[in-house]
Amino acid sequence: MTDSINLTVTNEEDRKNRFISSILFSRATIFHPASRLTSTMKNKLIEVAQNGGTDQNNPLESVTIKSYGKNFQVDLHVDYLLQSHRDILETMLAYAQTIQLDDESYEAGSRLSWSNIYKTVKNGDISSSQSDNFDSFIDRDATVLSMSMYELATRMGMTTTRANYNQIERKIIQLSTAHLIVNELDDQQNIVGKKSLKFVQDYRFYCDRSKFKRKTKDTGNLTNHVFLVPDMRLLQAIRDHGYYYRLEQHKMTHYSKPSVRSFLKYIMTHKPSFLHQKMFEWALDSYIHSIASPVSHSFRSDLRKDLLNQAVQIEMDFQIQIREGDNGLQLIYVGDDN
Fold first, then answer.
1. DSSP 93-126
2. What is the distance between the alpha carbons of residues 162 and 160, in angstroms, rounded to a whole number?
């Protein structure tokens, strides 16, 4: 049965323009808006490791948010995640080729395995950096994202170097281990519901030999392609509380600072018409309050300056002006539906 299965492979240009993020975890900024771990985060990881690691009652970080009229406490477990982790995840959700069982194979009860997925790359092999390289079955309902490292880095505005590919590998591994616990709270802040949310169910690093410019024996099985299976809980959260269309993801490459990208993703959890005439300082304070991990003393002033420096680009991308009002700077929505 495995040999006769058929796959539906959809190229990026043929995919529908669907949401790639969820308000449920986007109003809680658990992807820390920095390019590297802070000293506070490093010390916390050492402390947690010495105490036996995180457990359900002792997360790395927590933040309380309001979404859809309810209060939630969002807990981060296992490892810290940075904005760059989110960039990788949502760039793949936006632009990767998708692979699924076709309808006939699905209805026939066929099983999907990694060996089936590998056949979608004509001339390749498991990367030497893939520690888990045995064949195994994948959830029949799963969608596998398939993308070259070259395109992934390019789509994120990164240079296509081996060092950056290695960095992407490390962050995909961290995405596969970290998870959230989303606690629903009542009016007295008691937990009345609990859900676990993972980002990545499985992944494989792959070597597509057809992409090597020089056909030499010393290339080895270097990673230049990645297959990633988003966790079903992530896809459900996006389906139920989705926002930010995949074809908008390219706008993030206009902003080099991770804090700016993070802020923009946060404020866009609100409709632009809701932001109209809101105070700029209110938006900054609301965003900073959403960040699960402590930020530096200069974070607010640095972010404020960076946003003002890119005000023209922000207006071009999101139709939101930062304009002087009677009582200070305001956010003004200049889109068609205002």
1. HHHSEEEEE-HHHHHTT--EEHHHHHTTSSSEEE
2. 7
Structural tokens at position 219? 């290339």
Adjacent-strand bridge partners of 146: 97, 227
pTM of the model: 0.94
Give the domain ranges of the chain: 7-333
CB 197 within 8 A of CB 25: yes
Q: Which amino acid is at 39?
A: S
Q: Which of 230, 218, 204, 211 is nearest to 130 (CA)?
A: 204
The region of weakest confidence among 52-56, 193-197, 304-308, 311-315 is: 52-56
d(CA 31, CA 277): 28
User: Tokens representing 58?
Assistant: 């002792």
Q: What is the pLDDT of residues 121-180, one digit of tens each?
A: 988 899 988 877 677 899 999 999 999 999 999 999 999 999 999 999 999 999 999 999
Q: Where are the beta strands (DSSP E) in 127-284?
A: 137-138, 144-148, 179-185, 191-198, 200-208, 225-230, 242-245, 278-279
Could you tell me how far CA 168 lies from the centroid of its own chain? 12
Cβ contacts of 28 within 8 Å, gap of 6 or more:
63, 65, 72, 74, 290, 292
In DSSP terms, 226 is beta-bridged to: 147, 205
